[in-house]
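ok, trying the design again with the full structure, not the truncated one.
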């Protein structure tokens, strides 16, 4: 009971605990707002729905008459010189450069992941759920990706190819 009246720096400890917490909150709130605003595209030029199936993707250009096509990996017998083995597909997704694009991604059977690393895109395709990602490509070219989820046998044979044209 000899030290019950010791409270020399209690006010100071309270201040240096609460003050940094207030500063962090003041920094975090505007940052979260900016982060949210950079992810939203209010008026995209294209909206493409990507549906993951076992070993292939289905794409729907929803803004242009419901153009629908499947994208399968090219078998080795159909590869031409310069094609990439296990990465090229029979139908590429063709998009213009500098156009804001909204990708809506889902799956029909199991978990997939729509991934294009060179564009910094990775979104999970979950059955019964519609996920969304947005991007605006700045350089023309052919961008390759694959399903990066362990979604069954031959899961890595679900290539994604985006052809961006000027």
């Amino acid at each position: 009971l000899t030290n019950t009246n010791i409270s020399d720096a209690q006010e100071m400890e309270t201040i240096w605990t609460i003050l940094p917490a207030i500063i962090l909150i003041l920094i975090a709130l505007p940052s979260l707002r900016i982060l949210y605003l950079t992810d939203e595209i209010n008026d995209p030029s294209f909206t493409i729905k990507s549906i993951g199936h076992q070993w292939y993707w289905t794409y729907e250009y929803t803004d242009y008459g419901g153009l629908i096509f499947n994208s399968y990996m090219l078998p080795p017998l159909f590869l031409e010189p310069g094609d990439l083995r296990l990465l090229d597909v029979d139908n590429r997704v063709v998009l213009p450069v500098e156009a804001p694009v909204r990708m809506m991604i889902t799956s029909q059977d199991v978990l997939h992941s729509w991934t294009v690393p060179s564009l910094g895109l990775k979104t999970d395709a979950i059955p019964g759920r519609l996920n969304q990602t947005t991007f605006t490509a700045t350089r023309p070219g052919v961008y390759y990706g694959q399903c990066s989820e362990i979604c069954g046998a031959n899961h890595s044979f679900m290539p994604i190819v985006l052809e961006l044209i000027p």
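Keeping the full-length input from now on. Residues 46-164 form a domain with the Immunoglobulin-like fold (CATH 2.60.40.420).
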